[in-house]
Amino acid sequence: MWGYSQRFVDPPKRTKVSSVTIQYMTPGATLAVPSGAARPRLAFHGTGYLGATYAVCFAELGYEVLGYDVDAPKIAKLTGGNVPFHEPGLDEMLRKNVAAGRLRFTTSIEEAAAFGDIHFVCVGTPQRPDSMAADLSHVEDVVVRLAPHLHRKALIVGKSTVPVGTAEWVEQLVRRHAPDGSEIEVAWSPEFLQEGHAVEDVLRPNRVIFGVRSEWAGAMLYAAHKGVFDLATTEDREVPVVVTNFATAELVKVAANAFLATKISFINAMAEICEPAGADVTQLARALGYDARIGNRFLRAGVGFGGGCLPKDIRAFQARAQELGVGEALRFLHEVDLINQRRRQWVVQLAAELLGRPFGPAGPDLSGVKVAVLGATFKPNSDDVRDSPALSVVRKLSRSGAEVSVFDPEGMENARREVPDATYARSVVEAVTGADLVCVLTEWEEFRTADPVVLGGLAAGKVVIDGRNCLDPVLWRRAGWEYRGMGRPA
Ligand code: UDX
Questions:
Q1: 331 Cα to the center of ligand 1, angstroms
Q2: 490: number of Cβ within 10 Å
Q3: What are the two backbone dihedrals, phi and then psi, of residue 410, each rounded to the nearest 5 degrees?
Q4: What separation, in Å, do the N-terminal and C-terminal C-alpha atoms of the chain show?
Q5: Start and end residues for every CATH 3.40.50.720 domain found in the chain
Q6: How confident is the model at residue 324 (pLDDT cuts 50, 70, 90)?
Q7: Whether the predicted model's global pTM rises above the 0.90 cut
């Protein structure tokens, strides 16, 4: 495996990468872009969170970009300059680049095929309903739909998070569906976007990965990222590039997410120990984090991880390891998942304990208790409620008989769709008024800075569970609240 630092070198002319020799060409000089354009024209297939963000950001970097999707209303929305999800900074950038003519959207696969030198596959790979494995049907759809229309040389680049081995399978699909004699190549270049931070993550990535088989594919990917590298150079930054084979590139993404999930579950396991031992997990995490080998990021204990990536990715990874005959290697990820699930149940148990409610055979009985839940999204600065710990707790509280009133600054519409039978408040004030218990389950700024004195005057009972350890216990206790964090002394 080989990487270079953009700051110091332009890619060398020829370098050894695994068993493949990659020839790099100075973009625009010797690289013949199939469409004849000066820079490769980029098509993004799937304009959900990943594809739309990439399309907008690469247009911002100066590329000619086309976003393709089968979802006509979504394409109409994007064409009209509206991002169909919440991502800070993306709306303005979309409008600016649509107006500049660099960015267009279409539902015509023929148009996308004729346009693109590089086709990025950005569709979802959700968990299958019947197993832990990833559902690759959307990836298959894109390739099968696109390949027959590719009448000149092009590169298909996978960005979606997939089980290792998918790129080779995509190559076979292309061979089966592309016109005879067409020179279509495949590459894999995983993304590492964090919701709420995605624009920065595309424009200023901490690394880029090229999983390639040929010199031409490497050179095309380099040309497609020249804008990213140039921006880094002007800001005196480095963007490490790792050029590798398909399998390694695919694994980088799932291994990274498995590591992050493990780190979170590790600190949540420590939180479980801290509770009975009388220790404070926030101080423990701080002390651990000063060791540079451990680092302090992703060590925030709380109600655990959620979202459209970490939970399903660690499951799909286990399923794939089993298929490869090495299931034991990832057995620990099952434990990581279990620790994560326990965090959600712990909030309900703690609620019953704090309110002196009985535990029946079916668990805690919270009938008649009014609970204000602040937060519905899986993290702040996002409207995404997929596998959200907050909503999972809402369901569990309701099942225990509690009357739950939920408020979230951005996630209300999605939450309503996901859990229609909960009550939704229009503000923090409305949610908290008359509540016996307040649970803060997503660390939105608005909740972190809420005034406990004001809220104390509205609630029926001054009991708060801080599921993200994001409130100041001193302030809340001083205002008369019984405060309980996650893994912190009572
Ligand atoms: C994640 C990866 O970070 C990203 O690299 C990948 O491309 C997609 O998956 P994202 O799903 O946006 O990104 O969320 P992330 O910021 O990683 O948080 C995931 C979950 O973990 C959230 O629910 C968050 O609240 C939780 N979390 C995070 C913790 O509970 N504690 C922490 O210390 C960090």
A1: 21
A2: 11
A3: -125, -15
A4: 50
A5: 31-203, 248-490
A6: very high
A7: yes
The catalytic residue among 57, 309, 439, 470 is 309
The answer to whether 331 touches 360, Cβ cutoff 8 Å, is no
3-state SS string for 291-348: CCCCCCCCCCCCCCCCCCCHHHHHHHHHHHHHHCCCHHHHHHHHHHHHHHHHHHHHHH
Tokens describing residue 118: 């590089």
The pLDDT tens digits for 257-292 are 999 999 999 999 999 999 999 999 999 999 999 999
| Locus of tokens 């005879």 | 180
Span 31-203 CATH architecture: 3-Layer(aba) Sandwich (3.40)
Q: How confident is the model at residue 41 (pLDDT cuts 50, 70, 90)?
A: very high
Q: Describe the chain by its helix, strand, coil percentages, rounded to 5.
A: 45, 15, 40
Q: What is the pLDDT of residues 190-218, one digit of tens each?
A: 999 999 999 999 999 999 999 999 999 99
Ligand 1 site residues (CB inside 6 A) read 191-195, 257, 260, 264, 298-300, 302, 304-307, 309-310, 378-379
The dihedral over CA atoms of 232, 237, 243, 244, expressed in degrees to the nearest 10, equals -130
As assigned by CATH, the class of the 248-490 domain is alpha beta
Residue among 338, 250, 343 at smallest CA distance from 301: 343
Residue 51 CB-half CA count within 13 A: 33
Report residue 224 as tokens: 């497609």
Structure tokens at 238: 């480095």
Residue nearest to atom 10 of ligand 1 (CA): 194
Q: Are 122 and 48 in contact (CB under 8 A)?
A: yes
Q: By alpha-carbon position, which residue is closest to atom 18 of ligand 1?
A: 305
